[in-house]
Amino acid sequence: MNSIILFIATALWAMCTVSASGGPDSLAASPAIKPTSANSGREVVVVFNTRVPESKEIASHYASARGVPADQIIGFDLSTEEEINRTEFRTRLQLPLYQALQDRKLWRVGERPPFPGTNQAPVSDKVVLESKIRYAVLCYGVPVRIQKDPTVREDAAEKMRPEMQRNEAAVDSELAFLPLLERKLPISGPLNNPVYGSTNLAALHPTNGILMVARLDGPTPQIARALVDKAMQAETNGLWGNSYFDLRNTTEEGYRTGDNWIRNASEISKHLGFETMVDTNAGTFTASYPMDHIAYYAGWYDENVSGPFAQPDVDFVPGAFAYHLHSFSAGTLRTTTRHWVGPLLNKGATITMGTVYEPYLAGTPDISTFTSRFLFHGFSFGEAACASQSVLSWMTTVVGDPLYKPFTRTPEQLHDQFMRTENPLMEWYYARLMNINLINGKPLSVCVTMLEDLGLTKTSCILSEKLASLYWTIGKPSSSLFTYNRALSLASSPQQKLRILMERISRYTESGQDSEALADYATILKTFPDHGDKLSLYRRMLPLATKLNRREDQETYTAEIERLTGKK
Q1: Which of 223, 281, 288, 422 has a beta carbon 3.0–4.6 Å from 218's, enabling a disulfide?
Q2: 196 with 279, same domain?
Q3: Tens of pLDDT, residues 76-104
Q4: 311/531 Cα distance (integer angstroms)
Q5: Nearest CA to 294 among 493, 32, 9?
């Protein structure tokens, strides 16, 4: 367990206690939602493509929503394709944006001694000395990728490993070093990010050589525009829901880093009270895996969207983060079926990241650093994304409102708001409170009593399910099954209902109630005719039918297994 997780665990242990009355005070003390300095639309320059009407409309919508001053909305005449050549990038976007920021007095350039961190000798000492802005937001229609230019020859490239001697890049990542433009940094290969892993927000600034760049983008203009609205909705109510992490569980030397990133991210999520599910199978989550109320997802390594995320309905909550690590996860954003970034946005994710060309594992975002900065330190999305990248001028694109910060208010403030407005999200507050106390070793009996005494439990699927699980753990099977039945009757989404049915089947099976378990399997087949893994269900049903001596059912299940496996 790394140091950040140990720190979180220690802090929560010291601060999280259940009061005798079962009150909400413990979560209010959690450092996970410690506010940082406020972000403002005045810190943003918004960039749109004048050839794409929707691009300007999205820029206007964002500026209005976030209070971006009118002189900080800038349009450029750019290609309407996702890919742009190096010359056009430089002459139509990079240089004009740099000059526009000076002309509009949004930053001031002057001479300063060489800036450490980019591992390259400077050609010029001119850098950004003062800046009113910290972020650049690129709107739908602004190209995503810079294509390779085979005519470029740089001495620096010859010193790199062959696979790094490339100059294709993500537009976002190339613009990140815009404050150092006059130092004429090499365009071949990645450059070290001087603020990678930083916990100091002051370092994430153009005067420190870094411009935080993100985009409002996706398969359609409507999806791109909605990213703003969903982010602001989550800022109003907080980010609540379940977390899902998908490991490869690999021991291969070249891939263990990716697994470690995702595993550490899952530990951070768990210690901060999010209901956290971790898949340790070599493959990705199966299509039949019941994901509901998805607030946070990180996994790898399918080329194209798969599993639950390829199903017709995906249950993302407003403000959800979803990230799938793959070399070409953002190969194109104008798709709902290929790669990952476009499909995840299409299904309802609010923020994500991806790579436009092969970055190699070390050149992808460190998702454990992102998770600690975003969930624990309370960084904005743009700040956390920037701090999670070990290199820039490379392949990562960041999609979503960079100002998005769902943890600006303490849980205590949200609790009071939810109480006043009778907001149904209150159940998530108590669920997270319960998880924090459980992870820090509070007696199960205390947690059970708290949920029993909480009136909301009787009308909440989430809290009833938690109580049912605790009842089972402390050896009260009858109470557990009764409470699972109540949770099932309160389920608000198909995926939530499916998950509870699968949990109840496990309890029935453990307690020898085979007939009831078989009935629940039949309910799943009837209720979910498009279930993604019927073969697995029939294979589980067959031994139950055999044990119960139900000959007709045995024949039916056997025939279905043969049909689904092509043996008949």
Answers
A1: 223
A2: no
A3: 999 999 999 999 999 999 999 999 999 99
A4: 10
A5: 493
